[in-house]
Amino acid sequence: MKGNWFFPNLWRFLSLLAVQGLVLSGISYNTDGYVSLLLYPLFILLLPILMPIPLVVLAGFLIGLSVDFFTGTLGLHASAGAFSGYARAIILDRFAPQGGYTGKEPIASPAYFGWRWFLSVAGIFFAVHLLWYFSMAYFTPVYFFNKILPQAALSWLSTMPVVTVLMRLFYPKN
Questions:
Q1: What percent of the residues of the chain are helix, what percent strand, and what percent coil, each to the nearest 5?
Q2: Where are the domains of the chain?
Q3: 10-residue block means of pLDDT along the chain (174 residues)?
Q4: DSSP one-letter code for 103
Q5: Residue 13's CB: how many other CB atoms inside 10 A?
Q6: What's the predicted TM-score (pTM) here?
Q7: What is the number of alpha carbons within 13 Å of residue 46 lying toward its C-beta?
Q8: Can you tell me the distance from the alpha carbon of 162 to that of 121, in angstroms, rounded to the nearest whole number?
Q9: Distance of CA 153 to the CA centre of its chain
Q10: Are 89 and 118 a contacting pair, CB within 8 Å?
Q11: Angle, in degrees to the nearest 10, between helices 115-138 and 149-170
Q12: Counting beta carbons within 10 angstroms of the beta carbon of residue 150, is it exposed (0 to 12), middle (13 to 18) or buried (19 or more)?
């Protein structure tokens, strides 16, 4: 992990937090919470690949807690962020190139792995995040098929195109 990883990630943290808290939380309220556009998990996904898992979980918790302060759902986004920080390691391990990650590819970006790889990883990552988020929102398996799964699917369908556009616009290399 190179020494210049802190400021790009701080900038990503603050900008995604602002967009999520100030703009996208209003969209969720306008749809009665049925469709939630969650972009802050992109911060977790774009953390350095070789960053230790406990730090990724902590960073996921911190951005989730920060979003919780904006939305008034203390603990919901923090839980989803921490879970996604842990799940990210499993997903990245599953999609690791032969021989593993070398450090030449500092983040999980299309700039290093290509669009096909990135969309596969991001699609699974966001699906896991949204399923956990809505599972914690209802906190019972009773609603899995009639609330949790449809809301997660609709939110995933609305989030992934925005993630793709953001990555196209900014195409981060660090």
A1: 75, 0, 25
A2: 3-170
A3: 71 84 69 77 91 94 91 90 96 89 82 92 96 90 87 92 90 64
A4: S
A5: 18
A6: 0.89
A7: 28
A8: 15
A9: 15
A10: no
A11: 140
A12: middle
